[in-house]
Amino acid sequence: MENTTVATIDMDAILAQREEATGSADTFSFTFKGQEWVCTDPITAADDWKDGLLDLDNDVEVAEYYLGEDQYARFVEAGGRAGYVILAINQYMQQMRQENEEGRPTRRRTSSAKRRKR
What we know:
Layout: H1 11-22, E1 27-32, E2 35-40, H2 47-53, H3 59-67, H4 69-77, H5 82-98, H6 112-117
Antiparallel strand pairs: 1-2
Helix pairs in contact: 3-4, 3-5
């Protein structure tokens, strides 16, 4: 049996890095109509906040939950829609999946055999 060493994941360092890069370890922002809008980060959100997602019935409720009631009202007044918030959340999640622990985009694995078949 081989003795393998598993690297320890330093959550303190990861959260500090996220906070340094974005200004917060538990939110993300997007711009719309020249304004910055701040959403709760679905990855690092508190467990009770995540549980609250189960009570939501539609995109409007989800968007308002992520932005908060007051900010969502201002967002709609600026011409925003719930779907725009959902798009921002989806984009954010996609970016998070594409970054590795160093914050660099990861390469998709491709098979040279698949490339030759094209």
